[in-house]
Each structure stands twice: as C-alpha cells, then as structure tokens.
Amino acid sequence: MSALTSTVNEAGCVVISGGSKGLGERLARGFLAEGRRVATFSRNPSAFTREMAEADPMQKQFFWTAIDINELDQIHHFVNATVKHFGRIDTLVNNAASLSEGLLPLSRDSDIAKMIHTNMLAPMVLTKACSRAMLRTGNGVILHVSSINSVRGHRGVSIYSATKAAMDGFTRSLAREFGPSNIRVNSIAPGFFDSELVTGQSPERREQIARRTPLGRLSQIDEIADVALFLCSSKATFITGQTIIVDGGITC
Q: Which of 22, 103, 128, 207 is the most buried (most CB within 10 A)?
C-alpha cells in the first residue's frame, strides 16, 4: 500500500454520528455509493434507516442502532458492536449536534450543560473509542462537522459557537497526536444550508443571510457533503489539522 493511499480504506467502515437524516443521511448515502460500509446511530429511526433496513436486512453494508448520545456508555457499546459487526473502523464523521439559540444571561444552566455534552463531550468520547480501532489497523480518517459560528461571532449562539470552536481546537491537537499513526483529522465548517438547524429561521431571516453571502444564496446540502466526502477520501491524503470553511464567502 503506497503512502498516498495508506490513510484511506476505500472499502472500509465509516462511522457517522446522527446519520439518520439531514447531512448525516446524505453522507451515509455518499459513502455507500462509494462501496463503503456505514455504521450510524440516532435517537430514533427515520425514513432513511427504515429504507436501509428493507434494502439490507442482514446489515452487510449499513448498520444502524438507536442510542442516546448523552449516555456515554451507549457510545462505547455502539463502537464495540460496530467493530464486532464489520471488523474495523476506518473513518469517523462526528456529525450529530444540537443548537439552542438565546442570549447567555437568559440561558438555563441545564441547556448550557446539554449543548456542551452533545456537541463536545459525546463527540470526544466517540472519537476516543473509534480512534482505538484505527490505531489497531494503523490508519484512519476523522472528520468533525463544525460551523462558521466557530470562526465568526453571531448574537444568540455563544454556547453553540464555543462548542464548535472547541472541536476545531480538538481537531488541530489530534492531528498532531495521531499524525505519526497515519490518522488524519480535519473539520468542516459549513455556512447556512437547508437543515434542521435552520428550518426555524423565518423567510425574512433566510433572505437576510442570502444577502450577506457573497454568492447570494444558502448552500445546498450536497455542496457541504461533497467537501466532507473529499476530505475522507484518498484524494485528500495530505490534508490534516485543517478547518475547511464552506460558506459561500460569508466569513471572508
């Protein structure tokens, strides 16, 4: 195996947190189309997971289970079950996240703790568990789904922004830590795109965002997914420790 392909197993197993819908579903479909096996979890089943259960009843290519990401023991059980099912983990995409908007002085402590747990603690624990499997095989790719809020301040999302900025810092340090073990670590920071995190925005707010974006529109979900798939592929084997911003120029 050459140095240029040693960090990606194109037929390997990809773990995606929150892969039942939205960007997670789009990534799962993309990896499956490449012939890779996908393991994912979410709190509840979705139309996509039910579709895959019918298409792949023996779970030879797609393994899904319901877990609560806030229960750390369940994360470890999921990773162990994935390794038992597919034999290895080659790629991890930390996609699951929660967003609660509001001014900090008015925020409840419980809401702050929940967002930190979902957006920081759980992904860190999932990364730790998956990285152990990668270290055994001597290669791997880790991708964190961040946000432009990690690099540019916005009113009312201070806690969410802090969690995403923390994951970007986590990315850079892990790239140093795992580089000698042939494991690449990056993050992708999407701008505004059609997802559950923006469905609550009014048409007026969405139009305002579009006007502030140099390309004049919100992103399509495929435009985010394609960059993520690239970063996890053998075409990006010399990229690590980076946060790639995909926002139509809104942060430039």
A: 22
pLDDT digit of tens for each residue in the chain (252 aa)?
333 444 555 568 999 999 999 999 999 999 999 999 999 999 999 999 999 999 999 999 999 999 999 899 999 999 999 999 999 999 999 999 888 777 888 889 999 999 999 999 999 999 999 999 999 999 999 999 999 888 887 788 899 999 999 999 999 999 999 999 999 999 999 988 776 656 666 777 778 888 888 898 888 999 999 999 999 999 999 999 999 999 999 888
Q: Is the pTM of this model over 0.85?
A: yes
| All structural domains of the chain | 13-246 (3.40.50.720)
The dihedrals phi and psi of 228, each to the nearest 5 degrees, come to -60, -45
Query: Nearest-CA neighbor of 245 among 218, 222, 221, 227?
Result: 227
Which entry of 64, 160, 170, 192 is annotated as an active-site residue? 160
Active site residue 196: no
